[in-house]
Amino acid sequence: MQSTLPKIATVILAISAVAFMGMSVAAYFGRPEPLAEMQSPEIADYKFEVSGDGKSWTITPSVGEDRAPKTKSNAYEALLEAYNHKAGRMSSAATEQTGLATTLRDTLNQVAAEQQEDTAAMQRRLQGLTAQVGQFDSTWLQKSEQLQKMSVDSRAIRDETGQRREDVIRLQSELEELRTDTFRLEQLRRTLTDRLLRLQLENQTIQQRLQQLEGQVQS
Predict the structure, then answer these.
(1) Backbone angles phi, psi at 3, to 5 degrees
(2) pTM, whole model, 2 decimals?
(3) How far apart are CA 36 and CA 34, in angstroms?
């Protein structure tokens, strides 16, 4: 029994050594290739440079406000720095677009409410003016029969009728302008909403890729 135990321990140690060696080989060949990852379109706006002795990497963004170069000790850390920087920049852009879209939506709601009030007021005014024009037309026809007797009054009525007609035309024109402004603001809101969705989708792709790289590097 005592002579058997050393043999069993030797076999177990040999199997464990082979298993650990296999895990090490798999981990080594399963790592992402850093030079290939540096050509990824997600980080195409970053420049990677290796030092002469190959012991450090420099990452320089070509877009954004922060373009200061960063130095890392190896290619994997350089990749993570690029993805982290891109993710932060995309997150900031998404936040800015969200704020802009919210502001525009609030402005659009305020303008729409004001336009509804103005439209209702102008419609009431238009109806009143239309009724007045009809009334003045009727009065003018009645007064025209007494032209010689009431020439001064009929002239004043004609002038006032013409002015009311001009007011009606002007209000109709302003109403059309308000409708055009509402349509233009709605189109702008849709454009900003689409841009925000694209930024959020791109940021989600960057975050997923960053998590994959971090998981592969840690393994």
Answers:
(1) -75, -25
(2) 0.42
(3) 5
N-term to C-term CA, the chain: 41
β 57-61/70-72 pair status: antiparallel
Q: How far is CA 219 from the centre of its chain?
A: 36
Q: Which residues of 171-210 are buried (b: 16+ CB within 10 A; e: fewer)?
A: beeebeebeeebeebeeebeebeeebeebbeebeebeebb
Residue 128's alpha-carbon distances to 34, 131, 132, in angstroms, are: 76, 5, 6
Closest by alpha carbon to 57, among 68, 45, 69?
Answer: 69
pLDDT digits (tens, 9 = 90+) for 17-34: 433 333 333 334 345 588
Query: Given pLDDT bands bounded at 50, 70 and 90, which one contains residue 187?
Result: very high
